[in-house]
Design a protein that fits this description.
The protein is α/β, with parallel strands linked by helices and 414 residues long. It contains 10 helices and 18 strands. It has helices at 6-14, 42-55, 87-107, 125-141, 150-156, 183-196, 240-247, 309-322, 371-384, 397-400; strands spanning 32-38, 60-63, 79-80, 118-122, 146-148, 171-175, 179-180, 200-202, 207-213, 216-222, 225-234, 253-263, 273-276, 281-285, 291-301, 331-342, 348-351, 357-361.
Length: 414
């Protein structure tokens, strides 16, 4: 793989950038692979990368029915944080956050990680108690967070209005080392590294069937023909239930749309990420000056990737109470993604009833922030059959009553 560097940029500038090659190969699929991963989003590509980097498994195909990173990876709002309440959640999200810090250097690709800080507002007494509890839990988990008062909130976010008409700001949970990253760049960085290890990224290819011999997977049928494999990883977010049904089992999750929008660009006015769970909205400012705004999931199951006016109105109305200045902004664009939500709002990273089939799904509204940790744990699970990062997120927890309840931490889309 050709390394990117300041020298390389200067050299290519001198020859009008005519020497850049393709970042990754686009080969035809082989007859058989050791591992087939369905889904070339962030989680699928990260899993493939860590299979090669950590476990030496490089005979891998990553199959994508659309284009690389064109699903939820390219449709999220890029927030990165790890201040979750439950120990298993904090462990995997903190692993992801720490890997984000060095990702640009590790993958030789600028993913534009910005540790600007994430603030979760407490606007009711119930939230104050809940966030103080989370701060204490995070201290025991080794995750750096703190509960701050209204004065400190105003100091960090000068444009905020502390005296809201319905919900005044009583404080907030502050994680200074949280932040944002560039979603497309994360997918491209992993894809480039996977291709360099000899893995095949096969785009515009849909999986239409899962082939088994008895209770063991032997391959998949695709729109480009049959592909054999020893192990199969299903990492397709909102379409996980569809793929699981092809393999003959069901998942305890539902698929709903999650919408977001950005405003017209304005001068810098907010250099952190603010989440307001009570009024159900969150906001940050992009490097281009746009205010990136999102809210909760749709209230009904659907597979649409379009936005809707009523949802935008509801989210913006809620945020205007806390940030009156945004009432004067024009909306630039809106979009939707399909998220996979479990009953306890925690992911499924697990073996399945089919031998050789592994599932990574159920990230709901928190998928982007978890990509590196998810890939690390899923790769270890597929390679070794066990991972300390994923053992609490197995499918069997739903039949055994071992829920990892993150309903509060994931109560608003982020």
């Amino acid at each position: 793989m050709r390394r990117y560097s300041a020298f390389a940029v200067a050299r290519e500038a001198a020859r009008y950038h005519s020497g850049w090659g393709r970042a990754w190969r686009s080969p035809e699929p082989k007859k058989k692979y050791d591992v087939v991963i369905v889904g070339a989003g962030g989680h699928g590509l990260a899993t493939a990368y860590y299979l090669g980097k950590n476990h030496g498994i490089t005979n891998v195909a990553i199959i994508e029915k659309g284009w690389l990173g064109g699903g939820n990876t390219g449709r999220n709002t890029t927030i990165i944080r790890s201040n979750y309440l439950q120990d298993p959640s904090a462990a995997i999200y903190e692993k992801a956050r720490s890997l984000y810090e060095t990702m640009s250097q590790d993958l030789n690709y600028n993913v534009m990680f910005s540790p600007r800080g994430v603030l979760m507002l407490a606007q009711t007494e119930h939230e104050v108690r809940g966030y103080k509890r989370t701060a204490h839990a995070n201290m025991l988990q080794g995750v750096q967070t703190e509960f701050i008062g209204p004065e400190r909130v105003k100091e960090i976010v000068p444009i905020i209005s502390l005296e809201g008409p319905r919900y005044p700001v009583l404080g907030g949970l502050w994680q200074a080392r949280g932040g944002t990253g560039r979603h497309d760049a994360v997918a491209w960085a992993y894809a480039r590294a996977c291709s360099d290890m000899g893995m095949d990224i096969i785009q515009k290819t849909e999986v239409i069937g899962v082939r088994k011999e008895g209770d063991k997977v032997v391959g998949v049928d695709t729109t480009k023909g049959a592909i054999d494999c020893d192990k199969l990883g299903m990492i397709v977010a909102g379409h996980s239930s569809v793929l699981a049904e092809m393999a003959g089992f069901r998942l305890p999750m539902e698929s709903v749309a999650l919408q977001a929008l950005v405003s017209e660009p304005i001068k810098p006015c907010m250099d952190i990420v603010v989440m307001a769970n009570t009024v159900h909205g969150y906001m940050s400012q992009s490097d281009k000056g746009e205010m990136v705004i999102g809210g909760g999931t749709d209230g009904f199951n659907n597979y649409t990737q379009r936005g809707s006016f009523h949802h935008v109105e509801e989210t913006v109305r809620a945020l205007v109470e806390t940030f009156p200045m945004i009432s004067r902004l024009k909306m630039l664009r809106q979009w939707g993604g399909i998220v996979d939500v479990t009953g306890d709002r925690s992911p499924i990273i697990s073996k399945t009833p089919v031998d050789g089939v592994f599932i990574n799904s159920g990230w709901g509204t928190g998928g982007f922030k978890s990509i590196p940790g998810s890939g690390w744990g899923m790769a270890e699970l597929m390679a070794k059959g066990h991972s300390s990062l994923t053992e609490e997120f197995g499918l069997n927890r739903f039949t055994e009553g071992r829920f990892v309840d993150e309903s509060v931490a994931a109560g608003v889309a982020h």
